[in-house]
């Protein structure tokens, strides 16, 4: 039955059926009420408490679902309610949250930065020498997210770089064997590591990781 619900008072619902005279119905005879507009503004009066202003969006099993101004929903048994007054004002819509800005990703060939560790490519072609910082020894780590040895070597390289003020690390994610950067450098295996001196000249490279050979390249780059 479609009705207009005006007041809940003393355990009764004052409602008006469409094109009919108002009538009062005991609340315990009503199974549920589903409000046609989703939610309605209402003031709930409880015995011995201050009136609560908020929204009601369902009456079921002898209780009202009441939403306060913080968006928290509470089920209030009708037996505890002295009176509920409904408003005819439309419920204001919540403004949509502004879209979260996406962090800008520099192009692969952007100028070098002084960051200790930086990913300079995710599959795109990259000019490694543009990312070498003058006065620093640059280590370039070609890796892939799916490469288990890379997952082990990556943290080792980062730890080594963070312990030495003269070193920086530039990481290139090849993504797959057919990516532009993989074709550019002829990568056939990863991890693949290059070492550049303070003037941006390559002094050595290695596939996999050999700590003795790696340290010898760093010494030569100094």
What's the CATH C level of the largest domain?
A: Alpha Beta
- Number of DSSP helical runs: 3
CATH architecture group name of the largest domain: 3-Layer(aba) Sandwich
Distance between the termini: 87 Å
* Rg estimate, integer Å: 34 Å
Strand content: 35-45%
Shape: rod-shaped
In which range does the helix fraction lie? Answer: 10-25%
Weakly predicted, low-confidence segments: 20-25
Most strands sheet? 9 strands, antiparallel
Output the CATH homologous superfamily of the largest domain: Glutaredoxin
Order of helices and strands: EEEEEEEEEEEHEHEEH
* Helix/strand/pairing category: mainly beta
Q: Give the strand tally.
A: 14
Number of domains: 2
Give the mean pLDDT: 79
- CATH topology tier name of the largest domain: Glutaredoxin
Model description:
- The protein has 222 residues and is mostly beta strands.
- It folds into two domains: 3-86; 117-221, Glutaredoxin (3-Layer(aba) Sandwich), CATH 3.40.30.
- The protein has three helices and 14 strands.
- It is rod-shaped.
- The relative contact order is 0.11.
- The model is unreliable at 20-25 (pLDDT under 50).
Observed structural traits:
about 220 residues; Glutaredoxin; about 35% strand; 2 domains; mainly beta; nine-stranded antiparallel sheet; about 15% helix; five-stranded mixed sheet; single chain
